[in-house]
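Query structure, 336 tokens:
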């Protein structure tokens, strides 16, 4: 999940079990301040320093999410480049495996058939290291039967391609020791980023104090955004989790338009997908956002579509073979 409730930092410091909740709550406050500065940019335009500080806060929050994602990495890796290479390797393993199975069906004995009988789903569920070994095994089988495989649309060039993609994918498989070290580094970065953001917010507090008596309502709204008990300007709806079948267009949200509604959308799988806010639930509309594997986007309704008729949040998976996965949090403005 993406957003405050779903950001999983585990135990940021092993000797402090409450750090997990504390960091989530503090980041929640950061996001409320970010919203406030964005929503009232025109009101704060009279103070030259606020716009720059707002941009700096955007950078800090993005860095926190990025470091948090590295802190919470597992041994499968999450880079888009690796995900694309894995998908390509899965396709080649499946193609070569199917050809070998067809050959095995016409060959006496069950040894080869048993080793090359698998479904696409089983391939997709393999750990990275197992997929690499399966590709290496199929290469060896294919080289032994290369002449016969021509009958099943597998040529030497296909085996060379399988081996090349396997080598490229092998480089992407993380070493557990290196990954643990990277996680420690990410944890240190998180400590630093939270400390730096607190200092930045202290400066913003001083900037906003100049509005305290001249525009008290504006100042009070900012103070609400600085609360860590999440009683400020937003309330968070329950998260939406789901999947998109190959080629699927899906309506995941239907509600009257609110320009300040925030969508926090994360690609929680290995397949890219796109999303939009549209007036109709039969297509994607004009403004379409692409979201790669393990990336997220935090965006307002007004940024997705300025039309007051836009009520459908649409998702689309353009991949013809693989299923995409998503997490969505929706934050509504409280009505005062």
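Result returned for the query:
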């Amino acid at each position: 999940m993406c957003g405050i409730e779903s950001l999983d930092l585990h135990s940021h410091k092993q000797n402090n079990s409450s750090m997990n909740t504390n960091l989530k709550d503090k980041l929640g406050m950061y996001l409320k301040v970010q919203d406030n500065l964005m929503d009232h940019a025109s009101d704060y335009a009279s103070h030259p320093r606020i716009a720059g500080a707002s941009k700096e806060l955007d950078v800090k929050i993005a860095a926190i999410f990025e470091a948090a994602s590295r802190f919470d990495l597992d041994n499968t890796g999450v880079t888009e480049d690796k995900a694309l290479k894995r998908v390509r390797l899965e396709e080649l393993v499946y193609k070569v495996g199917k050809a070998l199975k067809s050959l095995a069906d016409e060959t006496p004995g069950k040894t080869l058939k048993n080793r090359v009988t698998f479904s696409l789903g089983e391939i997709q569920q393999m750990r990275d290291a197992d997929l690499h070994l399966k590709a290496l095994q199929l290469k060896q089988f294919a080289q032994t039967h290369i002449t016969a495989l021509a009958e099943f649309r597998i040529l030497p060039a296909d085996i060379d391609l399988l081996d090349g993609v396997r080598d490229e994918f092998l480089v992407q498989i993380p070493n557990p020791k290196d990954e643990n070290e990277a996680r420690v580094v990410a944890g240190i970065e998180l400590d630093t980023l939270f400390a730096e953001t607190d200092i930045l917010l202290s400066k913003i507090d001083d900037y906003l104090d100049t509005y305290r008596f001249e525009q008290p309502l504006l100042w009070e709204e900012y103070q609400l955004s600085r609360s860590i008990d999440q009683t400020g300007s937003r309330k968070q709806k329950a998260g939406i989790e789901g999947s998109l079948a190959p080629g699927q267009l899906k309506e995941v949200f239907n509600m009257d338009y609110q320009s300040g509604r925030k969508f926090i959308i994360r690609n929680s799988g290995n397949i890219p997908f796109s999303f939009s806010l549209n007036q109709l639930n039969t297509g994607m509309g004009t403004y379409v956002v692409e979201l790669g594997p393990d990336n997220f986007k935090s965006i307002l309704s007004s940024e997705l579509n300025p039309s007051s008729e836009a009520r459908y949040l649409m998702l689309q998976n353009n991949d013809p073979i693989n299923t995409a996965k998503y997490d969505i949090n929706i934050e509504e403005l409280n009505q005062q």
